[in-house]
């Protein structure tokens, strides 16, 4: 077994560290070969120490949350996957919430509702973590993270921890400066507003109902597969290009919502990429519109 694996186990005694861990266990697509080393640090300090050790050795490393927007290739990942899943502490302070990167958005929204805090209803059904939501400026039903975020603490490429105000994050449609600058989200602050608890819960249930009705939640997926092209809706373009239900292997353009590529059971990353390329090419030929992937490839 790899010497570095044993080094990490000594360095991070509280972390969950695994060798040749199948990444399909850690992505909502349920696709992906093995990570050479998979580590879920117990604390910020352990995450920082693991990242620093990877830097010193020149070992590739990548940070994931819930893997809800990620497609890992079939050969897996030769480096170290650092998961924030155990960084899940959260604190409600009046109308503010301070939470670690690994907190699920569903849990965050539920905690806000319990405190009669409005503003996170849109996030209740998003299957990602706070860290991933910051990186992608996650949004749904007309709302985005940038509307509630106030500050973020990140680990930069040099191993330093810095605090950024929301204005410094350059948040836009499914983007921020976090990924471009190689930052790792550690913690974030959110500013919400007092509301009526029952009204907040009703709104969350209303949006959950819309998701159940319109989205293919019965199959593994990575959510919306393509970004919304300016002036268009991705799902409509895909549908009108005649691609509803189109398959490559067990990867399929959802018959329920054409904006989703779903895993019917045994789809490979190669299947998904081949199908996405077919969609991109056919939409371009039919409408002259270039489709850009929203999901991240590893």
Quick overview of this protein structure:
With 298 residues, the chain is an alpha+beta fold.
Description:
30% of the residues lie in helices and 27% in strands. It is of the alpha+beta class. The strands form 6 sheets. A 5-stranded antiparallel β-sheet has the order 6-7-13-11-12, with helices on one face. A 4-stranded mixed β-sheet has the order 1-2-5-3, with helices on one face. A hairpin with a 6-residue loop joins strand 17 and strand 18. The longest helix has 19 residues. The two termini are 23 Å apart.
The level of helicity is 25-40%
The best one-word shape is globular
By DSSP, the count of extended strands is 19
Question: What's the main sheet like?
Answer: 5 strands, antiparallel
Low-confidence stretches: none
Query: Any idea what the radius of gyration is?
Result: 20 Å
Total DSSP helices: 8
What's the helix-strand series?
Answer: HEEHEEEEEHEHEEEEHEEHEHEEEHE
Strand order of the largest sheet: 6-7-13-11-12
Structural class computed from helices and strand pairing:
alpha+beta
What is the typical, i.e. mean, pLDDT?
95
Strand content: 25-35%
**Spatial separation of the terminal alpha carbons:** 23 Å
Keywords:
4-stranded mixed β-sheet, 5-stranded antiparallel β-sheet, 298 residues, single chain, alpha+beta, 19 strands, 8 helices, globular
Write the layout of secondary structure elements.
Elements: H1 3-11, E1 16-22, E2 34-40, H2 44-57, E3 61-64, E4 70-71, E5 77-83, E6 90-93, E7 96-100, H3 105-114, E8 117-118, H4 130-136, E9 139-140, E10 143-144, E11 149-155, E12 161-165, H5 177-180, E13 184-191, E14 193-194, H6 197-214, E15 221-224, H7 234-240, E16 247-248, E17 251-253, E18 260-263, H8 269-287, E19 296-297
């Amino acid at each position: 077994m790899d010497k570095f694996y044993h080094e990490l186990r000594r360095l991070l005694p509280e972390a969950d560290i695994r060798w040749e861990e199948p990444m399909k266990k850690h992505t909502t697509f349920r696709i992906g070969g093995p990570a050479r080393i998979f580590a879920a640090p117990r604390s910020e300090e352990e995450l920082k120490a693991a990242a620093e050790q990877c830097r010193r050795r020149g070992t590739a490393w990548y940070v994931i949350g819930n893997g809800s927007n990620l497609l890992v290739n079939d050969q897996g990942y030769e480096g170290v996957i650092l998961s924030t899943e155990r960084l899940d502490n959260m604190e409600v302070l009046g109308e503010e919430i301070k939470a670690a990167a690994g907190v699920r958005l569903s849990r965050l929204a539920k905690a806000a509702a319990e405190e009669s805090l409005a503003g996170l209803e849109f996030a209740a059904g998003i299957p990602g973590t706070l860290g991933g939501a910051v990186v992608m400026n996650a949004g749904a039903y007309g709302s985005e993270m940038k509307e509630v975020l106030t500050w973020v603490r990140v680990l930069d490429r040099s191993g330093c921890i810095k605090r950024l105000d929301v204005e410094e994050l350059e948040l836009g449609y499914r983007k921020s400066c976090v990924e471009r600058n190689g930052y790792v989200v550690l913690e974030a602050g959110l500013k919400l507003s007092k509301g009526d608890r029952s009204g907040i819960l009703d709104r969350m249930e209303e949006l959950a109902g819309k998701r159940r009705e319109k989205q293919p939640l019965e199959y593994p997926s990575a959510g919306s597969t393509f970004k919304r092209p300016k002036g268009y809706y991705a799902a409509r373009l895909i549908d009108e290009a005649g691609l509803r239900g189109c398959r490559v292997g067990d990867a399929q353009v959802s018959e329920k919502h054409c904006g989703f590529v779903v895993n019917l059971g045994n789809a490979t990353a190669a299947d998904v990429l081949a199908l996405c390329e077919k969609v991109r090419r056919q939409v371009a030929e039919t409408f002259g519109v270039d489709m850009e992937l929203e999901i991240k490839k590893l």
